[in-house]
Amino acid sequence: MSHRVALLGASGFIGSRIVEMFHLGGLADVRPVTRSIGALARLSRFDLDWRVADARDQQGMCKAFAGCETVIHAIAGDPATIRDSVTPVYRAAHEAGVRRLVYLSSASVHGQAPLPGTDEESPLRRRQPIAYNNAKACAERRLRGLRAKGAVELVILRPGIVTGPRSIWQTRFAIELLAGTAYWLNDGRGICNSLYVDNLVHAIQLALTAPGIDGQAFLVGDAETVTWADLYRPIAQAMGFDSIQLPNVDHVPRRGNILELARSMERTRPGRAIASLIPRRVRLGIRAAMTPVPPVNASPWAIPIAPASPLPSATLEMSRLYRCAWKLPDTKARQLLGYRPVVSFTEGCRRTIGWLGFAGFPTIQENNRSR
């Protein structure tokens, strides 16, 4: 083990994969920090030195960071949580003698359809129509202000659309295929600034130890330039759907979350017929993840669809994403971090489809195995 790193947001999609890769790969002595005992359910299969503390509790964070050389801030959540967690976390890291804080921001600080030429040096837009974007930009500004007065080094990563097993972007599309609500905008030709989760974890590892990068922000993505059709077509094919037949619309009526969709389906006979096509454990996973119950009662294997996460359901968000025409460059990350994607886009799609079959979705591979 190279050093001890505290990980905030360890129970989430990205956080749990950081734990797996760091712990199983011997990359670091990782200490998961979660807000509740229940959030540690998925990670309990590992013998780890975990802590329970709220990111907004500076004293609790200071205790959680004791003995750690670095901290990874990978907390998702609503805009208020995003904004309000960074100050106590940074101050606690300072008190605990932490050397470096790596903050997972988002490429959305540049908007869902960034202008051609956008890179890390482009000014962050302060008043975007999507609250999540503004919250991430605000969090970055606060951290930079804290770094100007504090001793803890700061490195910011701006991932795009993070894909892979349990990714909300691909899981939701699979659910919408089964529900008959999947659609295209712009024929799926817009650029998807994708980033397979293992590539992101690799970038995080580099950001923890690379010299001379204090105060820097880095865009990170997959090596390939891919479209939304490239991302979604393999899933449709694996589930026996013809993606070409998906409706191509200019405007999608605003819809509620998946739980609301499931409830509305149960109220009609056709809806119940569609719902019956969704594997029982998938339906239960959706309910477990979307229903506001105490975390201790949630299944550790539930599909990660959480109300606090930025879901690809908002009309404005998806309409802009589908019309993106610029692949955000990772040139800076390659030059200063030595970043190179470790998993190809094609391999990432293959792994994700394999997980969908494991999770109970009716993929062709899963159907063939059950015969």
How would the global form be characterised? globular
Q: Name the assembly state.
A: single chain
CATH fold-level assignment of the domain at 4-164 and 196-222 and 327-341: Rossmann fold
The description of the largest β-sheet is:
7 strands, parallel
CATH architecture of the domain at 4-164 and 196-222 and 327-341: 3-Layer(aba) Sandwich
What's the CATH C level of the domain at 4-164 and 196-222 and 327-341? Answer: Alpha Beta
The whole-number mean of residue pLDDT values reads: 85
Sheet with the most strands: spatial strand order:
3-2-1-4-5-6-10
Radius of gyration (CA) equals 20 Å
CA(first)-CA(last) distance: 44 Å
Low-confidence stretches: 252-265, 267-271, 288-302, 304-314
Q: Quick one: CATH superfamily of the domain at 4-164 and 196-222 and 327-341?
A: NAD(P)-binding Rossmann-like Domain
The number of distinct β-strands equals: 11
How does this model look, in words?
The protein is an alpha/beta fold and 371 residues long. The chain has a domain at 4-164 and 196-222 and 327-341: Rossmann fold. Helix content is 42%, strand content 12%. The protein has helices at 13-24, 58-65, 79-95, 131-149, 168-179, 197-209, 228-238, 258-266, 269-275, 280-290, 315-322, 331-337, 345-358, 364-370, and strands at 4-8, 29-34, 51-52, 70-73, 100-104, 153-159, 161-163, 191-192, 194-196, 217-220, 226-227. The strands form 3 sheets. It has a 7-stranded parallel sheet, with helices on both faces. A two-stranded parallel ribbon has the order 7-9. A two-stranded antiparallel sheet has the order 8-11. Helix 4 links the parallel strand 5 (100-104) and strand 6. Helix 3 (79-95) runs parallel beside helix 4.
